[in-house]
Amino acid sequence: MLSEELVYRYDRYELTLAGPREGNPYQDVSLRARCTLGSRTVQMDGFYDGGGSYRVRFMPDSEGTWELVTESNATELDGIRRHITCISAREGVHGPVRVRDTYHFAYDDGTPYYPFGTTCYAWIHQTRDLQERTLRTLARAPFNKLRMTVFPKHYIYNSNEPELYPFERSESGSNDYWKPNPGFFRLLEQRIDQLSRLGIEADVILFHPYDRWGYARMSHEQDLAYLRYAIARLSSSRNVWWSLANEYDFMLEWKTMPHWDALFQTIERHDPYSHLRSIHNGDLGSNYDHTKPWVTHACIQNPSVEQAPRWRRAYGKPILDDECEYEGNVPMPWGNITGRELVHRFWVMAANGAYAGHGETYADAKEELWWSKGGELKGDSWRRIGFLREIMEQGPGPLTPLEREWVWTRVAGGACGDYRLLYFGPHQPVAWGFGLPSGVPFELDWIDTWAMTITPVAGAFCDVREIPMPGRAYMAARIRPLSTKPD
Amino acid sequence: MLSEELVYRYDRYELTLAGPREGNPYQDVSLRARCTLGSRTVQMDGFYDGGGSYRVRFMPDSEGTWELVTESNATELDGIRRHITCISAREGVHGPVRVRDTYHFAYDDGTPYYPFGTTCYAWIHQTRDLQERTLRTLARAPFNKLRMTVFPKHYIYNSNEPELYPFERSESGSNDYWKPNPGFFRLLEQRIDQLSRLGIEADVILFHPYDRWGYARMSHEQDLAYLRYAIARLSSSRNVWWSLANEYDFMLEWKTMPHWDALFQTIERHDPYSHLRSIHNGDLGSNYDHTKPWVTHACIQNPSVEQAPRWRRAYGKPILDDECEYEGNVPMPWGNITGRELVHRFWVMAANGAYAGHGETYADAKEELWWSKGGELKGDSWRRIGFLREIMEQGPGPLTPLEREWVWTRVAGGACGDYRLLYFGPHQPVAWGFGLPSGVPFELDWIDTWAMTITPVAGAFCDVREIPMPGRAYMAARIRPLSTKPD
Q: What share of chain A is helix, strand, coil (3-state, %, to 5)?
């Protein structure tokens, strides 16, 4: 924010107003605003930030001078008017991530975005020192998305109390779910903004089942009030994604499917910017029906990444298997695959025009497991995932899986025009003849997905029956048509 | 055969008779025999062996004196009578393999049999020298089943003509499918018998699509005549399994599903010993309906071995994924996985109470690929498959997959009472708590499936929450209850 009246495109404008303190201002006082530019109007909720302060936040997506007007049942908050001039975005700021080309993503300004996410579920509920260490790790890591919960977590390796609670809490530990805790939300916003500065999307998980504080069992009305408060506070952050729940199916006793649908619809109705929306399953057979119109992309927990083409067909949306098991060595079956296996799964997803997610669960005497608390990365996969990210970002665009032939249920291959990324996993051919472009001269690189080397194969190829391959496993072939090869 | 009138149980008795030579004796002369022991009668076809010789073969499965009587439309073959005394089986002879306990196998005399098969499709159509080398390799290898075709093979790496053809053939190369070639069948029988002496079941593939001689496109009547001839000749070999076809679905243009069903029914009706019957798919989505009553066990081609529990539920029969891709490095996607990956797939199948098959397709200047021609084994997997076979045979019995918990879609585990074989694949836990027996003291071994080591973990465990694990991948845990542990 340059000043109260000037704001960069996709940055946050914030209007602060003084208003009523009596009663429960969170529920009693209504506040919303309309921002108008020409014939376009964006409508958003304001929120009570405690101490008699009310705020309205706005993230303009178009340059020009917007007019903001408030509306409230409190006279001192009603009819406030501002002119906000939106100027072009700062360097490196591209806006919220959107769905592009059915199965993929791009920033609002059209810049490509390939999600390479990791998971630190409850990182903002750890000590300040640990939170800072997590940020330092993220600054060096290749990830551009982070799955994180709003609520603290009660689970194996997660027994600590948070420093701040999301709702007002008496000394005896009873919660008033009708009164959010502004101090907690300020911390959450600070962390989301810090992620934004690191180029990391915040995949904000609004509900989850691992709970001893009652957040998973609030009434439907309390859920709706919480959601609207979170939307009012957070939606002006360009890097927010809404993950309605983690393992929603483990909460069906408390929130039935119509409730989940209603919560989705509430986000859809009240988020002025249509941030991405999805929901994450627990049991492998319990994917949410991601064809429902309020779901923008499918989030899936499943180790069988070779199903990516099937999920694409089933949902017709971008596919994120954001929990294809974690690198680690803990006793839980979802948390002990090798780094090599996780890197393998990332490549299978990528070559199939879909996306995987990272997490680390190495046993640790201090119970500081990255997957939930953050801290430091200990594994082998994260650097290789960064290598894959570089390759994807060097490519000409999103990949479409080569899936029609019988070949591609065994080996993963993706195409973008005549560009090809073929990934062989445990296959180790000495030559390969499927999925090659025809009638186009191309260059070939061998990519060692583990050693992170790219070996150009001498010469150009055109209409060859086969390309040579090194006869080693966990290799990829990159095929770049000569005409469109970047410098 | 001790003499014409004395035969060991499960060995072959052969009656040779002189008969008509004129016309086409293969089709014109009918010959069958009934063998009776008490109230039991076994009926079998005889066959013309060329040169005016007719033979009837009989494999008695019960001790005692059987009476054999022939029946023929040729008077010199009709009403011949013999008394055949069957005495107890020779050491190491256990009879044909049968289905046992719904999902498993045992020899006819009850001896357990765990299939660990390999594939040399067209080995009997290679030079005699190469055939002998194949036998020498098999004598040193751990396999107890071999998939092999009756007909020669026309395919990549398989361009040679056979020395012997299964049907009479003119010099110009035209075949008379109504006249089998006895010389060829004698070779086939010799090879099947040699396998038997090595303890190897012959999984005899009766039809396959890779053909330039017309065998894949004979008429239905010719198919039936060929089948009955093959049954008459081969069914007295205790180690024969009938694999109706390899990749039957690639021949549906010539043989529709009702034809396949009729062929199965012909085997069922004419094989006096009810040898095992199955059929092998080509496309991964084209499994034959193995619930059909004439199928004794499901043969499957599929790289996704983690589907084993699903196949068990679907078919309710023993599951053999006898083509879960081959170890090798050729350009075809089904023929270039690493030895490590194939060993991994064997373990996943085994721990899930199912069975995998081996094949090797390493590129070779002489085009001598084991999978089709035999010769020598070059890979890394076969020794490790032998190691797994030893572990299975040391165990108390067939395994039932631990599949009800969410755990076992990620990690493979099988139980036989309180005995457990848990296989972790790319999972590398430092401890493990699922699928352990309760209330029973047990011993624990760590098994390195690749290094082929078994490491006993000191002490006994009972009702522990977790067992220690080494934190490395491709390990198994073997749990043996102390009370039933073998010496």
A: 25, 30, 45
The answer to whether the CB atoms of B304 and A306 lie below 8 A apart is yes
Nearest residue in A to B431, CA atom: A331
Instruction: Measure CA of the first residue to CA of the last residue in chain A; give whole Å.
Output: 38
Sheet holding A104-107, edge to edge: A97-100, A104-107, A112-113
State the Cα–Cα distance between residues B250 and B229, nearest whole angstrom.
24
C-alpha to C-alpha distance for B213 and A286, rounded to whole angstroms:
51
Ordered domains of chain B (ranges, CATH):
6-87 (2.60.40.10), 97-394 (3.20.20.80), 400-484 (2.60.40.3950)
Contacts of A325 (CB under 8 A, 6+ apart): A303, A333, A334, A335, A336, A337, A341, A342, A345, B410
Residue B292 has what DSSP assignment? S
B333 with A304: Cβ contact below 8 A: no
In tens, the pLDDT along A316-350 reads: 999 999 999 999 999 999 999 999 999 999 999 99
- Residue pair A60/A88 in contact by the 8 Å Cβ criterion: no
Angle at B469 between CA B468 and CA B472, to 5 degrees: 160
Instruction: Report DSSP letters for A159-202, one per residue.
Output: -PPPSS-SEEE-TTS-EEEEEE-HHHHHHHHHHHHHHHHTT-EE
Residue B434, SS3? coil
For residue range A79-115, list pLDDT tens digits in order. Answer: 999 999 999 999 999 999 999 999 999 999 999 999 9
The three-class DSSP label of residue A487 is coil
pLDDT in tens, B229-284: 999 999 999 999 999 999 999 999 999 999 999 999 999 999 999 999 999 999 99
pLDDT given at position B484: 53
The CA distances from residue A420 to A92, A402, A479, in Å, are 28, 9, 5
Positions of E strands within B170-276:
175-180, 201-207, 240-246
Q: A-contacting residues of B 112-141, CB under 8 Å? A: none
Q: Which of A428, A432, A465 to mutate to test the interface with B (most CBs of B within 10 A)?
A: A428
The alpha carbon of B176 is separated from its chain's Cα centroid by a whole number of angstroms, namely 29
Q: CB–CB of A61/A10 below 8 Å?
A: yes
Which residues, given as ranges, of chain B have pLDDT below 70?
1-4, 484-487
- DSSP states along A323-373: ES--EE--SSGGG-B-HHHHHHHHHHHHHTT-EEB--EE---TT---HHHH
Asked if B376 and B370 count as a contact pair (C-beta separation under 8 A), the reply is yes
Q: In which residue ranges of chain A is pLDDT below 70? A: 1-4, 484-487
Q: What is the pTM assigned to this prediction?
A: 0.94
Cβ count near A99 (within 10 Å):
15
Confirm if A479 and A442 have CB atoms less than 8 A apart. yes
Bridging pattern class, strands A167-169 and A175-180: antiparallel
Look at B329 and A363 and tell me if their CB atoms are within 8 Å: no
Residue A241 · residue A206 · CB < 8 Å: no
Q: DSSP per residue over A351-364, as a string?
A: HTT-EEB--EE---
Q: Give which of B307, B142, B60, B428 is closest to A332, Cα–Cα.
A: B428
At B4 the pLDDT is 56
Q: Which of residues 358-377 of A touch B (CB under 8 A)?
A: 363
SS3 category, A20: coil
- Chain B: residue whose CA lies nearest to A430: B329
Minimum Cα–Cα distance from A306: chain B residue: B304
Q: Is B104 exposed, middle or buried (0-12, 13-18, 19+ CB in 10 A)?
A: buried
Given the structure tokens 């084209």, which residue do they identify?
B286
